[in-house]
Design brief:
homodimer, 9 helices, alpha/beta, 3-stranded mixed sheet, 4-stranded parallel sheet, globular, Rossmann fold, 9 strands
């Protein structure tokens, strides 16, 4: 993808959008931001609404004003579906009962994107990503694989909430980025699409893979968190209809992530 | 239903809830308020979010604080489903793509009620009502049947947006109230239920009924509004599983409404 430029501004400041859109011709907005994570969002729902939902509406209003017609929105495959009724993989059309404000706001933004398309012809591409992991991850609060790898590298104790049976769908970051680029280049618009590996791994599976690929480390099991659903794996049939996908194995993804982390630490 | 008390306060003032909940033991909250209607909500979405969604979260937080465990929420059968893919009656589990911020906020409040039930054991009853009409209606901006009847009584011209083919599900207000009371007395909790007649009438059907039952009047057809979906009728099978319903015919409902309006005008 060519001509990708990054403009800097504060998500909380409408004036910043105004300046950026006024000075530049912007074809596509990538909305990847969130001010909260699932576990924090339930503690201050009003903040979640104001900082994520209202700021997004301000952004959409500015896009309409400056006739910017395309937005890619990273929604959340891990939280919008909520508690599973059964162990089947989640399709885009399945029922949605989030157990975090984070998931509700993602879903609500999806609905507003549909509305802005209906009212103003704004084209959206809603991507319900599963759990990305890999290089450039920069967060010690979120992202199981990256957090474990950093702790392993620092010889810290790895804390697991619950008994490790919680199952998630992980996707290697470079696969996720390539899929997004491919969808944009194919001009897929006004669709809601799950992006994940379509495969479920429990935390214990992930621990075993890391132990096999990298080595042993210290583990501590803590109480489970109410915000964690027991099982979520995405059905990616819709994605596979739009583009060919060729995913990195979780073992390779973990090894590459670890090698890159090691290099960046040595480089410091 | 006994012991129903009305407490007065401002929906925008958290202090008001605080005073009311602090002074009184409240078992059930009836959330029937909206600061917007569908057509107005799209013009100021930020206001819709702040005044309806954030105020509702403030109310729910106060309910949790004072251990009030039950809320009845009047959602919107007419707007949460959005554009129909086909002419079938809408089931509660059908897909939801509102074309108004009003509908999105109703849906989002539904999701937060589910979340508050999950987090705090707050019991909800979400009622997706169709279009109520009848006595005590006090609004000249909304409510086709009542607005027409008032204009007929005042010998004003009745304006219709579009060609009159728009189909809606109408429910006589006394039927709606009885259904709500019956559901509460049966202690139906944590359910989302459509409440309507399950029958569709076009605006032209309604006009013909009023002409037959009451008499002729002047009509003017205007441009259609973007906020009006062409068809929405509710599937009420779920409601019928919970309680026996016995609906007033639309002709009788319209006659009673007209007689009551006439009386109130003569009484003035």
């Amino acid at each position: 993808m060519k001509n990708v430029k990054i403009y800097y501004g504060d998500f909380h400041k409408e004036e910043d959008y105004e300046i950026i859109f006024n000075k530049n011709r912007i074809d596509i907005v990538f909305h990847l931001i969130s001010t909260t994570i699932p576990s924090s969002s339930n503690k201050n729902i009003i903040f979640d609404i104001k900082s994520n939902l209202i700021n997004t509406i301000n952004l959409l209003n500015i896009m309409v004003k400056y006739n910017c017609k395309n937005i890619i929105f990273l929604s959340s495959g891990g939280t919008v579906y909520g508690h599973p009724d059964n162990m089947s993989k989640k399709k885009e059309s399945d029922s949605k009962n989030p157990i975090s404000s984070y998931g509700i706001i993602k879903l609500t933004i999806e609905k507003y994107l549909y509305l802005f398309n209906y009212l103003y012809g704004l084209n959206y591409l809603i991507l319900r990503a599963s759990n990305p992991f890999g290089e450039y991850h920069n967060n010690l609060k979120q992202g199981l694989i990256d957090v474990i790898l950093k702790k392993v590298l620092n010889r810290e104790i790895v804390e697991i909430w619950g008994d490790g049976t919680v199952v998630r769908d992980y996707i290697y970051i470079k696969d996720l980025v390539k899929i997004i680029v491919d969808l944009i280049e194919k001009e897929i618009q006004n669709e809601i699409i799950n992006i994940g590996s379509g495969r479920g791994y429990s935390i214990n599976n992930i621990i075993k893979i890391i132990q096999n690929e990298i080595g042993n480390f210290h583990l501590e099991y803590k109480d489970a968190r109410q915000v964690d659903i027991p099982y979520i794996v995405l059905n990616i049939n819709k994605l596979e209809k739009f583009i060919d996908i060729n995913l990195t194995s979780i073992e390779d993804g973990i090894k590459r992530t670890y090698d890159s982390l090691k290099k960046s630490l040595i480089g410091d």
